[in-house]
Amino acid sequence: MNLSTTSYSVLSLLSLRDWTSYELAQQMQRTLRFVWPRAERKIYDEPKRLVAAGYATSVTGAVGRRARTTYSITPAGRAALHAWLGTTPQPASLEFEGMLRVLFADQGDLDQLRVSLETVKAQAIEARQRLAELSEELVSNDGGAFPERVHVNALSLRFLIDHHDHQRRWAEWALAETAKWKNTTTPTDAARRRALQVFRDAADPPEGR
Amino acid sequence: MNLSTTSYSVLSLLSLRDWTSYELAQQMQRTLRFVWPRAERKIYDEPKRLVAAGYATSVTGAVGRRARTTYSITPAGRAALHAWLGTTPQPASLEFEGMLRVLFADQGDLDQLRVSLETVKAQAIEARQRLAELSEELVSNDGGAFPERVHVNALSLRFLIDHHDHQRRWAEWALAETAKWKNTTTPTDAARRRALQVFRDAADPPEGR
DNA sequence: CTTTTATACTGCCAACGGCAGTATGTCAAC
DNA sequence: GTTGACATACTGCCGTTGGCAGTATAAAAG
Fold first, then answer.
1. How far, in Å, CA of A159 to CA of B97, rounded?
2. Would you tell me which of A25, A113, A175, B196 could form a disulfide with A43, CB atoms 3.0–4.6 Å apart?
3. Which chain D positions have some atom within 7 A of a protein CB?
4. Which DSSP string do the residues of B147-171 spell out, in sequence order?
5. Which pTM value belongs to this model?
6. Of B39, B34, B19, whose CA–CA distance to B145 is shortest?
7. What is the pLDDT of residues B135-169, one digit of tens each?
């Protein structure tokens, strides 16, 4: 009975309050998605696994003739969560289809590249908008649903905001850069010089500490 | 016979030159991993799928008594790749276990939080170092193995460098921020004020265009 | 009182990750 | 000239995940 990181992310939510599977699925999509994106479908399986592991208990009530199961964390669950917080996380990993389109843009034409960049920009703005909405919620009622958690939420939000702003700014820069291109296959001499300068900058990592 | 984004990333590599499965697996880990991370194991299946789809051909040679299969893109493959470059990419998605540890740090203790942040920082520096090595290769021999592709490589590298530098700088900021904390559960008044200021900043997205 | 929308899931299957295993090639040391 | 270490070059297996489709009831809107 091995639990995945997804299991622990659900267990983490259960450490804050009781939830139904449906609420957990909603909450994962609304907030945790930004750092741990998982299909809604999978979230429904996790509480069952947690119960099987002894980390949660379920209470089945009813709304009309429909069953409603509410899950709660157990002391063993809290202990397991505490232990997990001391384990080493996997490195962050980024899936970026839009960048694949850019990397191999020389196999397509200039219009396609520019549409891809516009899509990346629009998607960054969209995600940024979702974060702004979450933030508004946190500002109102002085800290949102979990006002005792403002400090950790702020740590995380600071990163996510910059992350999505960075995507947008990069897309804008790339659009400006490619505005001077005549085709996707042959860089102009100026573009070539700027490219080599990017490589030289990148080859020299900043001081670590 | 539906091809995945992983299939198209392999097809993209084949558009540059011929490769063996092993070389493709290496190249994916070395470079494309940063934008499309996939297990080495899976890369071995992709060329076969591309052959089945008519997008690649295979030629089996030999090194001693060991078979060596080299894959090449077909005209149909080039056409399919061109069409794919015009499709809409999925939004970028980030998996960040370290941030999960930070978000639920109030369920653990201060030492665990600081170790998590140090790990995030070290992993960012490590990834940045891999990018610096790639860049050195691109600077030498005036553009690396594919000098005609400097312009698209520069576009992508610019983003990736900033992405990993951002992770490092954020981890350093978070370490400084948490240096003032007495525990993980109760923010000081000052920390609480700074948190609410983060939310207010975040609630106000910058001008889109 | 009927249609729409939200709630609350489950089944199915292809894609994926990670580990273990197999087998050959290359080079350096003994 | 053989042994061992390491690199090359994959394949099998199995549990996890993503995404689509489907089922069914409750609540809200018209």
1. 14
2. A25
3. 8-13, 15-21, 25-27
4. GGGHHHHHHHHHHHHHHHHHHHHHH
5. 0.92
6. B19
7. 998 888 777 889 999 999 999 999 999 999 999 99
